[in-house]
Structure formats: C-alpha cells, structure tokens
Automatic annotation (TrEMBL):
Pfam families associated with the record: adh_short_C2 (PF13561)
Stated family: Belongs to the short-chain dehydrogenases/reductases (SDR) family.
InterPro entries found in the cross-reference section: NAD(P)-bd_dom_sf (IPR036291), Sc_DH/Rdtase_CS (IPR020904), SDR_fam (IPR002347)
Species for this entry: Caballeronia glebae
Keywords for the protein's UniProt record, in alphabetical order: Oxidoreductase
Name of protein: 3-ketoacyl-ACP reductase
UniProt cross-references to PANTHER family, sorted A to Z: 3-OXOACYL-[ACYL-CARRIER-PROTEIN] REDUCTASE (PTHR42760:SF133), SHORT-CHAIN DEHYDROGENASES/REDUCTASES FAMILY MEMBER (PTHR42760)
Length: 263
C-alpha cells in the first residue's frame, strides 16, 4: 500500500459522533461521510437534527440529551442496530457554560456544564467501549477538548475545568485500553470560526465591559497565526486520527489552534 493511502480512513468505518447536528460535530460527521464511513449522530436539538439528516440520506441519527445516561444507553443501542457495531466514537457534545467571576457563578450552571461536557463522555464511554472491544479491529476514541484544556481561562472556569479533565480522561484511557488495541486521543480546537464563537466573544466582552470587535481583536492577538481555525480543520484532524496513518498515535492531546499563546 502507498504510504499516503494510510491517510484515508478505511471504507465502511462505523462512526458515532455526539452533538453533531451543527458546528464542529456536523463538520466531523460530514467529513466521515465523504470518505465512505457509516455515521450515526445524536443531538439534543431535534430541529437541527432533522435539518442535518435531511441533507444526507445515508446518515443515521436520533435526538438525545447526552447528560442523561439512560438516553445515552439508547443511542448506543440504536448505533449497534443501525451500523452493526462501532469503530470510532467521537465524543464531541458540549456547551460553552457560563461566563463570569467565580463568586458570581450559579451552581446549577456549573453542574450543567460538568454534566454536558464531562459526564456525558463517561456515559458514552462506559457503553461504547464494550462495543468497540466486541466488534472492531480498528477502534479509536476521540475526545473533543479545547485549547482551554491546556491553558487557564479567566471568567470561563467551568468550561476550562471540564476541558482539562477531558485531557486527563483521554490520556488515562489510552493506557487502560491500549492492550485492547483501542486508541484514545483528544483534539483541542482553538478559536473556531462560527456563531458559537461569536456568542462566546460577545459574552466575554460584556463581562469585561468592552466592545465586541475589540474583544475579537484581543482573541486574534493571542494566536501566533493571527487567524481563527475552521470546522474543516478540526474535521481533518478527526479523519487523520481515525485513519491507519495514526495507528500508533494514542494518549495525545493535539491542538488545532494556530498556536494560541494564552487566553
């Protein structure tokens, strides 16, 4: 086989992407579809899910709140039924969480952020790992962390805390699951173009009492390449990590961020 052919995920790869009706998750799902994978997605937004699945006849999906372990169990069972097994779990679902000084944060918002960003990945892993062991010879797990999982992030402590935790989760599981030939890696996106990032910038601008455009410029100044990354950049990394070319890549926290220097 040509060495560069290893960069292509194998045809028929069975992939589950969580939180995938829009944004990064949708970009990853579409990328896997384009290389011939079988893809199942879930999302809490029923309308967005309907719009996205309507665009892709071969895409399987269902509505689910990833913070509810019973609903997660149902997603795994439906994935098994639809795909006949599982090769790749992309634990992507997450929320931005609240913005503000730690003393002003609502405990309910903290708990919701932890449940959605961190606990949900555990809920999927506890059900998906047995399926990966049972049905796959090319298994891998991709945990979606963030640049906020390697840098401190003032006024966004709930979000940052969960994203740091996901790096620890990925590195620990890489050791645990390595003997079963399951690779586990984390992707750490930086400042990603799109509506979600605009909302984050707007919330931070409000917290600091400055204009949106000034806040956006501050974000770009912190990036060595002075530009945001795209959803396609993140999807390309996910494809690589699921490909034979990454057959010996595990336990890594890989930033796709233009080198964010500080937050």
């Amino acid at each position: 086989m040509n060495t560069f052919e290893l960069l292509k995920p194998q045809p028929g790869l069975r992939v589950l992407v969580t939180g995938a009706a829009s944004g990064i998750g949708a970009g990853i799902a579409e990328a896997f579809l384009q290389v011939g994978a079988q893809v199942f997605i879930c999302d809490v937004d029923a309308a967005a899910l309907d719009r996205f699945t309507a665009k892709h006849a071969s895409l399987h999906g269902c509505v689910a709140d990833v913070g509810d372990p019973h609903q997660v169990d149902a997603v795994i069972e439906r994935t098994r039924e639809a795909l006949g097994g599982l090769d790749v779990l992309v634990n992507n679902a997450g929320i931005s969480g609240p913005t503000g000084p730690v003393e002003d944060l609502d405990p309910a918002q903290w708990e919701r952020t932890v449940t959605t960003n961190l606990n949900s990945q555990f809920y999927f892993l506890r059900r998906a790992v047995p399926l990966l062991k049972e049905t796959s010879e090319r298994a891998s797990v991709i945990a979606m962390s963030s640049v906020a999982g390697r840098l401190g992030y003032a006024f966004r402590t709930p979000y940052a805390a969960t994203k740091w935790a996901l790096v620890g989760l990925a590195k620990s599981l890489a050791i645990e699951l390595g003997p079963s030939n399951i690779r586990v890696n984390a992707i750490l996106p930086g400042v990603v173009q799109g509506e979600r990032m605009d909302r984050v910038i707007a919330a931070r601008a409000q917290a600091l009492g400055i204009a949106f455009e000034a806040m956006k410029e501050e974000y770009l100044k912190k990036i060595s390449l002075r530009r945001m990354v795209s959803v396609e950049d993140i999807a390309a990394m996910a494809l690589f990590l699921a490909s034979p070319a990454a057959g010996n890549v595990t336990g890594q926290a890989i930033s796709v961020d233009g080198n964010v220097e500080y937050l």
